[in-house]
Amino acid sequence: xxxxxxxxxxxxxxxxxxxxxxxxxxxxxxxxxxxxxxxxxxxxxxxxxxxxxxxxxxxxxxxxxxxxxxxxxxxxxxxxxxxxxxxxxxxxxxxxxxxxxxxxxxxxxxxxxxxxxxxxxxxxxxxxxxxxxxxxxxxxxxxxxxxxxxxxxxxxxxxxxxxxxxxxxxxxxxxxxxxxxxxxxxxxxxxxxxxxxxxxxxxxxxxxxxxxxxxxxxxxxxxxxxxxxxxxxxxxxxxxxxxxxxxxxxxxxxxxxxxxxxxxxxxxxxxxxxxxxxxxxxxxxxxxxxxxxxxxxxxxxxxxxxxxxxxxxxxxxxxxxxxxxxxxxxxxxxxxxxxxxxxxxxxxxxxxxxxxxxxxxxxxxxxxxxxxxxxxxxxxxxxxxxxxxxxxxxxxxxxxxxxxxxxxxxxxxxxxxxxxxxxxxxxxxxxxxxxxxxxxxxxxxxxxxxxxxxx
Amino acid sequence: xxxxxxxxxxxxxxxxxxxxxxxxxxxxxxxxxxxxxxxxxxxxxxxxxxxxxxxxxxxxxxxxxxxxxxxxxxxxxxxxxxxxxxxxxxxxxxxxxxxxxxxxxxxxxxxxxxxxxxxxxxxxxxxxxxxxxxxxxxxxxxxxxxxxxxxxxxxxxxxxxxxxxxxxxx
Lengths: 455, 170
Known about the structure:
The complex is a heterodimer.
Chain A: H1 2-27, H2 31-68, H3 82-127, H4 137-282, H5 287-419, H6 443-454
Helix pairs in contact in A: 1-2, 1-5, 2-3, 3-4, 4-5, 4-6
Chain B: H1 2-8, E1 10-16, E2 19-24, E3 28-33, E4 47-52, E5 57-61, H2 64-67, E6 78-84, E7 87-93, E8 95-101, E9 105-106, H3 116-119, E10 120-126, E11 129-134, H4 136-159
Parallel strand pairs in B: 2-11, 5-7
Antiparallel strand pairs in B: 1-2, 1-8, 3-6, 4-5, 6-7, 9-10, 10-11
């Protein structure tokens, strides 16, 4: 069941790694490439996890078959992992030794049974007064049996020690794996912190974009108000221009009237001159008429002077009116230019508002993605921690297996000591046997045992 | 006659072709504004044509030939009509400045020949400007003689078969 959990965790880890890679690529702006790479990562991780899980499952099955004794000594199938293959090879070799020991023990038991049977046969004639010389074979037989047991237990002890060494290697590998898992957890926590920073930046970006949008909207409203006021000013100026043009037209009409008055004045002047001429021609009788004609001429001259003055003033009014109309035309042109520029600024502000909306939307999406990444990273950390706990549990079990092996070794030692009292087996500083290069007891120890048995 | 003029002392002052002249007021019949006149064929430069003065056709003369021969100006804005012993006739002038009593210094050697120098009988000042006083009778004689000579020459040229009659409507 734990192997399946580990397999599932591997698959989930590959999936999360693919999502993280896809998110990083999508933030870099290539979504299609990101999903393609993430798909490749997920598929590769899944295949690797499935392959590793299957191999691990096969190892577990072989170890389970070894533990249950159903393992085929000739049918070992290497799984591809060097350490596990070595461990299985060592276990297989030890099992072979155990089987050989069991076979030899069976043979020794058979021989012992045969010896006891012979002893019974020989004891019966001795009890019946038969020859008792056959009892001399009993010590040799026991000695041989003890020697055989000693060798087999030595091999048995060696096998147990190999199992313990393999357990040590597995424990070291489990410790290394635990360290790798811890480092992976730390890396994922760092990624999680960075995702948290990205989330904060995305929130700040969204807030800034919203603020920019509000400012731009305010500017847009002010530009609209300004455009309305400018339209009103333009209307007022146009009305003023119309009134000034009407004033100019009226002035032109007045100018025509003044011109007519001037003509009348000129004719009056001529009439006065002619009257003066007639009075001169009349001599003394026309003297009074000459005075009247002179007065009329004087009035005509005053009228002409007034007409000239009026003409000058009308000309001045017309010039000023024309200048005012020109100034109003310039003002209208300037207002039109200002309106055009304000409309351009309004379009720019509308684009800024639209861009701010898009930036705020992107910021919100980024924050959402970052939150999802943060949750996935937390789940990934939980799974990695579960993996680390599983590895620690496995290491504890292996530690228990190693202690079981040592206990088994101690039991074998005690058995051998009980089997050969007074014999001094070679025991090293750790309390283990000092075995020869073949995994058996050294010949000196065997000779001591043999001497002890003979004595 | 000269005594009567001196007793009157009234002169009509007018501008013509940039010069200021004065003429005896008794010889002036009227001053009229500019109005169209009828040009005559085969007329000399001094005769503008015939003008209508109170339903009366009177000759209208130009003084450009005597005052400013090189001037391109045709005349003025007013017509000064005179009345001498030969009848009414007019002169195209710029404008009448007034009918004033001025002190005239007559030329010492006044003659009776109809010559432009004799036509200018004297001089005076009006509004601080020099004024040439014209003798209306002599001016009329000058113009009349100029017309007669022109038409006499014109008739002689026709009788001699010259081309001087070309362009003349008979």
